[in-house]
Amino acid sequence: MAKISLKVNGQSRAVDVDPAMPLLYVLRNDFKLNGPKFGCGLGQCGACTVVMNGNAIRSCVTEVKDVGGRAITTLEGLGSVKKPHPLQKAFMDEQALQCGYCINGFIMSAKALLDKNPKPTDADIKEALAGNLCRCGTHTRILRAVKRASGQKV
Amino acid sequence: MKKFDLSRRELLKAGGALIVSFNLFPAMDLLAQAEPGAQGMPDPKQLDSWIAVAQDGTVTVFTSKVELGTGIKTALAQIAAEELDVPLAKIKVDMGDTDKTIDQATTSGSRTIERAGPQIRQAAAAARKELLRLASQRLGAPAEKLTVKDGIVSVAGNPSKRVSYAQLIGGKRFNVTIQAEGKAGELKLAQDVKAKDPNEYQTVGKPAPRVDVPPKTTGEAVYVHDVRIPGMLHGRVVRPPVINTAPASIDEDSVKDIPGLVKIVREGSFVGVVAKTEWAAIQAAQKLKVTWEKPPFQLPANREELDKYLTGNKSFTTLKAGEKGDPAGALDKTKKRYEAVFRWPFQMHGMIGPSCAVADVRGNKATVWSGCQGPFRTRASISSLLKIPEENVRVIYHEGSGSYGRLSNDDGAEDAALLSRAVGAPVRIQWMRQDEHGWEPKGPAQLQKLRAGVDADGKIVAWEFVDYSLPWTVAATTTLLASQQIGLKSKVPGQGNGNQGGGEIYAFENTKVLAEEIPWMKPEPIPLRTSNLRAPGQLSRCFASETLLSEIAADLGVDPIELRLRYLTADARATDVLKRVAEKSQWQRRRQPAEASNAPTAKGRGVAMTRRAGGYTAAVADVEVERATGKVAVRRITLTHDCGLIVNPDGVKNQVEGNIVQGVSRALYEEVAFDGNAVTSVDWEGYPILRFPDVPELDIVLIDRRDVSPLGAGELSTVPIPAAIGNAIFDATGARLRDVPFTPKRVLAALKATKPA
């Protein structure tokens, strides 16, 4: 166990955990953040995605000791139902989910994409989201939502 | 912000002043931790069991049906809003708590709108009738002179005379008895009460944004995976991805250094660990050294052995979808005969979030939080597992990951219950990825043998279709995984994998469409256990029958749509979906395959259709096949869909889109790998599913039929996708595929086996 200080959604907090534990479990169980989800624990499906220093990363395979002082943003850090982030609003407007278990990963991957590439093409979006799995098959809606969030014609 | 940490004491202090917000849903769960059965079981004959009006006019509908991500929470709310003339936003739906709802059957088979829809509609109509009776007394006007808008009753022609639902009954019980006959899915409610004429619908039939969507985009939705109970411990199961025998030994020293480990639990061949933290439980499950006994039998070790098994064993039941005339006799007389064998692999439900549940077993009582499809089914299995009465078990539903049939059978709840009983505290379990891929019950493997005969006039006069399928070894009538491991044996061999889709919609003179169910129940739990996977068995049967039909059309030099229309004479809705898909896809009638070209990429299109549970659909697939590699790209799917009267058009569209995409994935990529002992595809690399760059364009036509009762949209449109794609590959290349999935290797082999045109 070790004291590790993390900066999550703009707030710093120290936790006493096994430094080899994946970040996902700190976020879910210590920070009580439900956005990032456990899907595979192998970095294959993307349900656990968070943004770290501007990059979409898989929190299920990122050891907490490797996070250091880098800023973590989770789905909760973007907005709320009352005050949604433009991406969250676009996903609501396009009804771009079914069960929604994977949708954290899609929104967070899209967040990292749009921060780097504010007007992505369809191909850019598909490429950026190729690492995220959706079993319900809402891909065409997700594509429209990301375009809408980027201010492009849907 | 402190969100989910309210203690029970703080909550009780908050009492009735508790403000309901998304953030406080877990807190509400804590309140719900009351003793199972403490409030007495609701009675289906009491209107109050179905509908409650709060002081602010909010209407709550109680249902044991659950939102699985398919949008039924919103659709059922629309149905209730319609009958009551209350704004949709004022309807709340309380789902899947066995202490608060009546068993309306498991949420499966795309039956919710079809079966529970009328139940909710009639309960709401009965509530409206009672509210009008009360309003009539209050306003001194006969009930037939009253109108309702937005939950306010007024006298026609004198709108100043008005009273709201809230004023009439807000916060009070109806205390009205309604008719209730039959049980579960067959339950008929308030049949004596007249509901609205569908032609007058205002809310039903209009697109409504789904109520569950906003909190799912922000992390405010509380899935079962997010349920946290005070004092909750974390558990993990320890299962090998091979035939599950008893542990010969467990080396407890292998995990003694893990801080926070509470207990290693063994019961029969069930092994699990419980720890104070989730991470400790995960590590303990990974590191625990278990030596399992050798399996006393072997499974078929590959597809060839499986095919021999399927065709070499006697079925325990035959399901008939259609039988007319004498197809065998007619076949003997025909000059042109067609015979073909088709194969379908084991496929996975592939939940993105693995099985998860929380259980709190105290003495002879148990509370279970689960994302299961059938809370009452879970209640029954927990009762049988723990040997306690059903009424001592309370199941509280929270949404899980999309399950597509997988959570009809709630293995996770049983695991949590065994672990909780062993440690005397609430335990949360979640399966790891290899547990889910390894042990989820698979969609059964199938094989079909088809024979057809065409007479001298080019007419199909004989059709013989036999589906050899493994049944569902995991079903309502059999025991689940943990039950099996502690020695509860199933008394029945399982349940059939369905019989629709073998060509029974076509009016052939002589026809036989059968499904043979081949025994697959084994003495020990096997990783190739089987269960209902979305539109059970029908993708496979439709693939076989619709492929052979297109093959016959090609051989006769007839356009495949034209050929189908010749035999859909008795079915106007079938004809309609087919004609409309031809129109929408700008189908040019011609013989298939397309003329051969030497282009490196071959293009083609194929058609397929089906009827399922009263709904109709037809699909046209446009594909490209890379000749050098055998890689298939599905560019576009055009699909027509008739599920009767549509409740929420955008909800249906969302379902249809998902069904198509999942159908493309199952057609192109999905096959469970196995050997004689084990499932060997235990992650997403071993069992790939469709990813974003390979998603086709979708063009969907929804046909709304006001004259046909609403049906589900959760399964129908996934059925014809593999057949349409296979037929398109044939059109593009002249190569016939009879095995799914259409992997590059398989396509390449079919290309090589095809004579140049």
Your description of this structure?
The complex is a heterodimer of chains A (154) and B (757). Chain A is α+β, with helices and mostly antiparallel strands and 154 residues long. Chain A is built from six helices and five strands; from the N terminus they run ββαβββααααα. In chain A, helix 3 (86-93) crosses helix 6 (139-149). The radius of gyration of chain A is 15 Å and the shape is globular. The mean pLDDT of chain A is 97. Chain B has 757 residues and is of the alpha+beta class. Helix content of chain B is 28%, strand content 22%. In chain B, the strands form seven sheets. Chain B has a seven-stranded mixed beta sheet with strand order 11-12-9-19-16-17-18, sandwiched between helices. A five-stranded mixed beta sheet of chain B has the order 14-22-21-20-15, with helices on both faces. At the A-B interface, helix 1, helix 2, helix 3, helix 4 and helix 5 of A face helix 6, helix 7 and helix 17 of B.
Note the overall shape of chain A.
globular
According to DSSP, the number of beta strands of chain A is 5
The chain-level mean pLDDT of chain A equals 97
Shape of chain B: globular
Could you tell me the radius of gyration of chain A in angstroms?
15 Å
Order of helices and strands of chain A: EEHEEEHHHHH
- What is the terminal-to-terminal distance of chain A? 49 Å
Query: What proportion of the residues of chain B is helical, as a percent range?
Result: 25-40%
Strand fraction of chain A: 15-25%
- Report strand order across the widest sheet of chain B: 11-12-9-19-16-17-18
Which structural category do the helix and sheet elements of chain A fall into?
alpha+beta
Q: What is the makeup of the main sheet of chain A? A: 5 strands, mixed
Uncertain runs of chain A with pLDDT below 50, 5 residues or more? none
Helix content of chain A: 25-40%
Per DSSP E runs of 2 or more residues, the count of β-strands of chain B stands at 26
Measured on Cα atoms, how large is the radius of gyration of chain B?
A: 28 Å
Let me know the average pLDDT of chain B.
Answer: 94
Instruction: Characterize the largest beta sheet of chain B: strand count, sense, and whether it forms a barrel.
Output: 7 strands, mixed
How are the strands of the largest sheet of chain A arranged? 2-1-5-3-4
Number of helices of chain B: 19
Q: Regarding quaternary structure, how should these chains be classified?
A: heterodimer
